[in-house]
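Lecture 7 notes: from sequence to structure.

We start with a single chain of 85 residues. Read the sequence below before looking at the structure.
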Amino acid sequence: MSSDDKHAVVLNGQRLEVPSAKVTGIQLRLLGAVPAGYELIAEGRGTDPDRVLTDTEVLDLSGPIRHVFAKPPTAFGSLIDERHA
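Now the structure, written as tokens:
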């Protein structure tokens, strides 16, 4: 494989090289050892918003390097305010 055949993505600050210009969320999970339950957030390009990347969704790596972040599971509103309990 020549260096022209490689594409890169930055996952949680770590540059990962992949052999294709298209990669699925599950491939990124495996490459970056992202635990199950974590969300993958693909940073938007230009004015495009950031978006959650599902395991089966394809991310296009052509063009400028893509940045993806893994976010641990969160539970909003799960804390009980004991003053009101």
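The chain has one helix and seven strands. Keep this in mind for problem set 3.
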